[in-house]
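Sharing a chain and its predicted structure for anyone who wants a worked example. Both blocks are below, sequence first, tokens second.
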Amino acid sequence: MLLEKDYLQIKSKGLTEAKVKEQIQLFKQGLPFVNLVSAATYGDGILKMSEDEQQRLIDLFDLRRDNNSILKFVPASGAATRMFKSLFKFSETYNPEIETLNAYLNKEKDSTLSLFFVGLEKFPFYDEVKKEMETHYPDYKAFSNDEHRYYFVKTMLDADKLNYGFFPKGLLPFHQYKGHISTAFEEHLFEAALYASSQQKAHLHFTISERYEHIFDDEFKRIQDIVERKTNTKFHISFSYQKESTDTIAVTPENEPFRLEDGSLLFRPSGHGALLHNLNEQEADIIFIKNIDNVVVFKYEKEVANYKKALAGLLVSLQNKTFDYLRQLENQDITESHLVEIAEFLSNKLNTKISSEFEKYSKKYQIEYLRTKLNRPIRVCGMVKNEGEPGGGPFWVKDESGQVSLQIVESAQINKKDKRQKNILKHATHFNPVDLVCGIKDYKGNTFNLEAFVDPKTAFITMKTKTGKELKALELPGLWNGSMANWNSIFVEVPLITFNPVKTVTDLLKPTHQIK
């Protein structure tokens, strides 16, 4: 199916012929759905901290933080296009000379669009857009109310004007302060000073699209002095890109390589699972992971930071115990009671299902079994109560070998035609807000090879279109889903205040994104 010229294209992307053929084979054979055993709930996969416990963990983290290297890892490669989906459609289909805005809104029944116009003056970019309108439409003050709104949206989105839809989401105006507009990028710096800093230094790593690097650099230079002065923190910012070698081939509905008009193969970015390569290049002792659009205005940042510190305190506590047990397992004379204690720690604290055959193993194999289960990356993940947000959640999952483990599962991985699986999904109590604190080093201080802990069978196949033609696309196991399938996972309930993503532009009208 591959031509001679295809091999040159494959090589130029940093891929191999074997890898591409393996991907095509995945399309042909299909990928299995996950097998849900049950939803993770209180006391069965999800912890709930008391106020005293939370404070104890915060104190532990604050006590140890200056002895650890800390990094905040922020996936930030996406453009803001989807934020403005309703507005793009409005810009293309509404004509103020033909119908009124009310008539259009009533016809479209788009609540996002209606809310956008109701809250127009509360958006942080309102003044900037009006100023830009003056440049392109000098007589805009004579416009009717409907014309004003139409040209306001055009000014926001048109490529020859502000072009917001093709900005990186992290650099859009997000919050309006008195005399100052901040971006999500800037808010991440202020947050990092509160919980992801050590010895008054904060290291942040953003995964971005390569074409945006210069504007992220420019934004950091613009705000660096004022943020460092206000936080008394020195910031070290680094960037990386989603590597082309993580792209996956697209195929036709018949599983033949999809070709563009010039005959070349179509490769597509393979989702956030590709960022495992970027994370694998980091070496910090403690890594916080949080999406670029999940920020709050300043008055809520301390509350959010306290929950982050509590999660990190739990990581430090569990990691210390894990490392202690791994050192004990180096001693072949370890007692049977100690082995039972370690097995109970794995089961009760690290959510590891111990084999029912464990007691029948020889002592030597028991030691090796426990060492294998303990010596893995650890992640402590915040979980919020499920309020109908789209996305993944925490579940107990059984793999093909019958092993049961705690996983974050996307709804696309679940067979909704299976009544039992659909029922488990329906009764899930919690949702994954992407709020992780990770330990990626072993007890000897060596950084794990994170690629060794991926479940490759948790990739996704989705249907897309290109130039009007249907195609099948392959996404790698998600960064916090299948890419971390074989980590030791601890899930902790955190409040909704910690989850404030901006998926549509009107999310900026929510209280956590407004000063007043």
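Comments welcome. The mean pLDDT is 95.
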